[in-house]
Amino acid sequence: MTASLRFALRDRRVLAGGAILGAFALAGLLAPWIVPHDPLAQPDILRTRFLAPLAAGPDGAVRWLGTDQLGRDLLSRLAYGARISLAVGVLAAVLAAVIGTAIGAFAALFRGAVERVLMAATDAALALPRLVLLLALVALLSPSAPLVVLVLALTGWMPVARLARAEVLGVLGRPYADAARAAGSSPVRLLVRHLLPNALTPVIVATALGVGNAITLEAGLAFLGLGIPAPTPSWGNMIASGRDALVQAPWIATFPGLAVALAVVGCNLVGDGIRDAMDPTAR
Amino acid sequence: MGLVFAVVTVTFLLLNLAPGDPAQLWVGPGAGAADLEAARRALGLDRPLPARYVTWLGTIVRGDWGTSLAQQRPVTRVLADAVPYTLLLSGASLLLTYLGGIIVGLVQAVKRARPLDTALTVLTLFVYGMPSYWLALILVLVFAYGAARFGWPAWLQFPAMGAAGLDADFLTPGQRLLDRLEHLVLPLTTLSLLGIAGTARYVRGAAIDVRQQDYVRTAIAKGLPTPTVVRRHVLRSALLPVVTLLGLSLPALFSGTVFVEVIFAWPGMGRELVGAVSARDYPVVMAATAVFGALVVLGNLLADLLYAAVDPRLRR
Is residue A265 a contact partner of residue B125, using CB atoms and an 8 Å limit? Predict the structure, then answer.
């Protein structure tokens, strides 16, 4: 694991992806100190709305990425939006990975009826398009950040469960698993000490890719008006408000969309890089 | 069949075990306890879960899926109107996705590590990361607004709304087909570009794996021209994992379809579902979810048949 991680850190894609994600994370974390304007401020709307990128406002300050239809500074909103997008994406993907690993590991460990029921449920849930499932779930609830994390996790654990089951089954066949069992390890100890550490790499890769998916879907829900509600700036509701002003001010939708695409690219680069670093034939 | 049953069951459980009360949403926050109770009875929510499950299964099997709360017409009619549009859009996109994806992926594998491959790798990586709803907006901006504003030739201007023009009822059948195709261009391009990017990434990997096989080296060594090697030896073996991908990619395709239908006002299942979610139209949400699941299962069945057709080992 550590050796492969060292390989992964030498991979150019992991570095590039990590740099993209790190930049977004830094922008989000430091947002209150580095953004030039208050992301919620609507100063003198008539004179500050629809300012094109690089235009100076009536106060003389340059709006690097322009302003939206309420005169709010897009660069500042983008930085604050990174907080929501990254936090929701990472939390949702990690929670999904935990749920999926637990279900997959239980299925592999107990075999028989438990495994059949768990895997049938996994396959059935996997057959439903994730967005459809998300829509059906948020249809019954009023959206908030913790809820969005929860529904994203509830709709994202299935691929991890299948991966984890396959990996744990593979490790279970190894001699050291037999040795641990013969030495009297309880199933829980066997799982935690021996199986999971050796089955975790594909789960990490899936989680990295899952972060990208969750970011896209979180923004998508916000875009449909079913995500984290305004006025909290999120990339999704920025794209949505840009849709309403697509003709007058195309930049409003363009920049947050680029941000989502870049963040997803970052996640995919990291995921692909780790996967290839783990796979000796691809080195 | 078993999987369809499981999908229907999971849909029911998820929607009924999730916190939140459809009756409450239906009557609104200002309603009194009596109205709420009446709504629960009208929706059948006052009965225990297993009884509701059995009733729901029964109605689904009988084809009576209830009445849409928002549209006051049978759910089956609502969905029957929408399904053909979704199938047209997603089917056409699937076709383009695999055609384009296989071609781009093969080109990359043949030109491996040359500038063309690198450029296409970066391009597909970026397009693959784009959210469908955003790409759709950009296409609208360029080919609907931009094209009209800057006076581009008519064949580069496309409608961004609906599945037919306002005058569609007065057109001859030929013109109507052309009208439908014009309306299909932008939604289809959105879905297909994303699909091609994802598929090409996958095909490239599969084709490169196959190219390193001994029998491909033999084919090259015996002097076959590259196109023949690619067509006869590489493509055939690389197609197998790609067909497997087809079944697995269906849920993602339908997720994309939902966004694209909403943006382009394409009157399919996704737009119906989003509308139903906003209107708290519970029966339509349940039915649309189940139908999407059933479509995925059916698509997987088709993929299995296709797999048998592509893999000679499974033919007997």
Answer: yes
Distance (Å, rounded) from C-alpha A156 to C-alpha A261? 19
Q: Note whether residue B146 is domain-resident.
A: yes
CA A121 to chain centre: 23
Q: Give the count of domains, chain B.
A: 2
Q: Which residue has the tokens 């059935």?
A: A124
- Chain B interface disruption, residue of A116, A128, A241, most B CBs within 10 A: A128
Q: What is the mean pLDDT of chain A?
A: 82
Indicate whether B56 and B84 sit together in one domain: no
Q: Which residue from B133, B273, B297 is facing A239, i.e. has the nearest CB?
A: B133
Domains of chain A, earliest start first: 2-37+63-282 (1.10.3720.10)
Instruction: Tell me the ipTM for this assembly.
Output: 0.86
HEC per residue, B190-202: HHHHHHHHHHHHH
CB contact at 8 A, B263 and B254? no
Give B88-127 pLDDT, tens digit per residue.
999 999 999 999 999 999 999 888 889 999 999 999 999 9
The structure tokens 């087809």 sit at B246
Tell me the pTM. 0.85
Residues 11-40 of B with CB under 8 A from A: 11, 14-15, 18-22, 25
**Terminal CA-CA length for chain B:** 24
Residue B23 lies in domain: 2-61
CA of A57 vs chain B CAs: smallest distance (Å): 25
**Count of Cβ atoms closer than 10 Å to residue A148 Cβ:** 27
Six-digit token pair at A167? Answer: 């990996």
Taking an 8 Å cut-off on Cβ atoms, the answer to whether A129 and B258 are in contact is yes
pLDDT tens-digit profile of B192-223? 999 999 999 889 988 888 888 888 888 888 88
Domain identity same for B10 and B144:
no
pLDDT in tens, A147-206: 889 889 988 899 899 888 888 888 888 888 888 888 888 877 887 787 877 778 888 889
Round the CA-based radius of gyration of chain B to a whole number and report it.
24
Q: Are residues B16 and B115 in the same domain?
A: no
**Residue B70 in domain:** no
Question: Is residue B74 a part of any domain in this protein?
Answer: no
Shared-domain flag, residues B138 and B191: yes
Q: Do B18 and A140 touch (CB under 8 A)?
A: yes
B242 & B113 share domain: yes
